[in-house]
Amino acid sequence: xxxxxxxxxxxxxxxxxxxxxxxxxxxxxxxxxxxxxxxxxxxxxxxxxxxxxxxxxxxxxxxxxxxxxxxxxxxxxxxxxxxxxxxxxxxxxxxxxxxxxxxxxxxxxxxxxxxxxxxxxxxxxxxxxxxxxxxxxxxxxxxxxxxxxxxxxxxxxxxxxxxxxxxxxxxxxxxxxxxxxxxxxxxxxxxxxxxxxxxxxxxxxxxxxxxxxxxxxxxxxxxxxxxxxxxxxxxxxxxxxxxxxxxxxxxxxxxxxxxxxxxxxxxx
Amino acid sequence: xxxxxxxxxxxxxxxxxxxxxxxxxxxxxxxxxxxxxxxxxxxxxxxxxxxxxxxxxxxxxxxxxxxxxxxxxxxxxxxxxxxxxxxxxxxxxxxxxxxxxxxxxxxxxxxxxxxxxxxxxxxxxxxxxxxxxxxxxxxxxxxxxxxxxxxxxxxxxxxxxxxxxxxxxxxxxxxxxxxxxxxxxxxxxxxxxxxxxxxxxxxxxxxxxxxxxxxxxxxxxxxxxxxxxxxxxxxxxxxxxxxxxxxxxxxxxxxxxxxxxxxxxxxxxxxxxxxxxxxxxxx
Lengths: 268, 283
Hints:
- The structure holds 2 protein chains of 2 kinds.
- Chain A is mainly α.
- Chain A is built from 11 helices and no strands.
- By secondary structure, chain B is an all-alpha fold.
- In chain B, helix 4 packs antiparallel against helix 7.
């Protein structure tokens, strides 16, 4: 009775709905709040804003530092997404199809970067790259982002590969296709949604990453979150609200694509 | 078929080689060198660990870390439980809508959300203004740059990590079981505490453990919403490196944090019985 909608008492039901409404607002409002403030005219982020303006957007787009950091972010996130996905695809095949001992341990190992606190990975990789003189390079950004993106890529590809019936691929091989050909033409189209979401989530992980990037950054090379971070430490200027809005919109856009991809694969 | 399976062993090694090499070079080696540095800098021995556990300021950092972790876990459980319950109860469409709100919040830039709370909670912010307008307080509350800010901001971030596993757990409960209990004469309260809650326990436990572990290692939100005086372990590690170049101490505290995390993660794996790769592989 506690789990069927109809049989709950109206008192319990209405209080539950009210609590849920409040919590949903609590979860969603800060996001919309910051988007609204990016259009507010108040330097001190007064809410509701006295009037609406686009001047913070002008400041953002006129400032070469913000623009450059946004471009670096895009570049790092794209490379991270490609490399993480390319590393995750063969590994997922081996883990799902292989019959060898220690698969569970390997899977745990591959997902470990998700468990170890990011700050530790940041410090460890920073220490190593500092000794090699690699900090402040694109290589350092991409490599360190790939580490934390890999678990997300692996999990989403493994999930789609597990649902694929391998005997279909074997049938193609028996009919004369080469194994590689069968994988490309039979298996890949089916697991494509998993691969795409692996790429999308790797992109998102990199696009959003702060802690590692702050460590890897140099005055000449920084990502958007790093620029936001260093600006935030000085003041709360509404230009950060603009940068936040752009980050939110891109995340939203990627999530919509991801759910679209998932829906399409369900219809198949 | 025989040919396919005889080639498999060789295949697995080649397929796994790139990722293992990558993680070995850029993940394991750096971690190992951290461990090494904690034992060798400035001189060989355990003095960094001894200092970490004996100096009162450092112990205070550890205490803060666990205090915040515990409070954040409890608060996000209290917020997450009714939300998960409601999603399970609601008609499908509404439930799906709420889940997408949760996912949106979860995948929205951490920095953006933290910035938002910084603005909301500041002394001239909307939260203080509302409370003052309602006559609940006379003077603005200090809600940022202290542990209050850290706890509010982090609970906000952690709620989704409670709701998603808990909701999955609740959705799997057969409503008939609860009905059976009430038919047998149990009051609503008894059904809730003796039947419903115990059935939710796996979801509650794995969600709480995950949130606790994540809270211990969080850096961004405490660094922005917290103050200088009540630091947590992750901030302490970064400070030791960036301000004092004290790699020995930073590494020792990092190793301590990893150890705690891995022990808790091991517990988490024990709770979650089904393996994602081994079981039900199809072939």
